[in-house]
Amino acid sequence: MPEGPEIWRTADFLSDALQGEPVTNLYFAFDRLKEYETELQGKKVEKVEARGKAILTFFGNSHVMYSHNQLYGKWMLSDNGEEPDTNRKLRVAIHNDRHSAYLYSASQIEMLERKEVSEHSYIKKLGPDVLHPDTSYEDVIGQFTADTFQNRKLTTLLLDQGFVSGIGNYLRSEIMFYAGVDPHQKLRSYPDSEKEALAKATIKLSERSYERGGHTNDPSIIEALQRENADKTDQRFFVYKRTGRRCHKCGAVIEEEKTGGRKIYYCPSCQIEE
């Protein structure tokens, strides 16, 4: 499933294609949404935003389309009105005079009134979205120090969208590595200095992944690896999916283990004290 940086990049390219433009034609696959095909025609798309792993499309008549890609949903664009060549099931199509945006394979699509957005069952449970412009460092460190979360295991907590939204499996392992913390503890076991390191890593790597197309590795390391023709996973990540390979920073062998049905990756030298 795409993580926060990927969802925000999707929201950005949808904004570039749709924002400020009147809708010339609209298609919904689901019968419950068919009435909006005519109701929204001629209305401008005001903005497109990410919230956690969902996307909100704001229309000029106060309606907001909520969509969640889940595992298989995907947005695609066309400049000539021709539908992309794909075997995916079309769920939504938004057309204007310049572009067409197509949402495939997603099943969670709803139309809301603007006043209903904050109370949506998914959105109201979200923790701070690191990439949202209104989110501050204080918001993020406040989650790491809140009493509510102290008895939770860090590896589980980082995937909880009610803790910090937008983090998924690759960011989880990368954040723990960048912060230099042992991934096996409950949150209360980490000293304040490590909680601060985790908060900073959460922001730093989410922003880096957003800006660099999913790369969380240090740019200087990436440049060196490119000169060596290293494979893409080695270039992209510190530890994620690099089991058995050498840590970019200390040379130790990266390890993996399964927790909660999903794998984490870590450096036993950089992260675990003897």
UniProtKB/TrEMBL annotation:
Coiled coil: none annotated. PANTHER family: ENDONUCLEASE 8. Signal peptide: none annotated. It comes from the Bacteria. Residues 238-272 form the FPG-type domain. Its EC number is 4.2.99.18. Transmembrane segments: none annotated. GO terms for molecular function: class I DNA-(apurinic or apyrimidinic site) endonuclease activity; damaged DNA binding; oxidized pyrimidine nucleobase lesion DNA N-glycosylase activity; zinc ion binding. GO terms for biological process: base-excision repair. It holds the Pfam family H2TH. InterPro entries: FPG_cat, FPG_N, H2TH_FPG, Ribosomal_uS13-like_H2TH, Znf_DNA_glyclase/AP_lyase, Znf_FPG/IleRS. Residues 2-93 form the Formamidopyrimidine-DNA glycosylase catalytic domain. Belongs to the FPG family. Its cofactor is Zn(2+). It comes from Fodinibius sediminis. The lineage of its organism: Bacteria, Pseudomonadati, Balneolota, Balneolia, Balneolales. It is an enzyme of class 4 (lyase). The keyword Coiled coil does not apply. Keywords: DNA damage, DNA repair, DNA-binding, Endonuclease, Glycosidase, Hydrolase, Lyase, Metal-binding, Multifunctional enzyme, Nuclease, Zinc, Zinc-finger. This is DNA-(apurinic or apyrimidinic site) lyase.
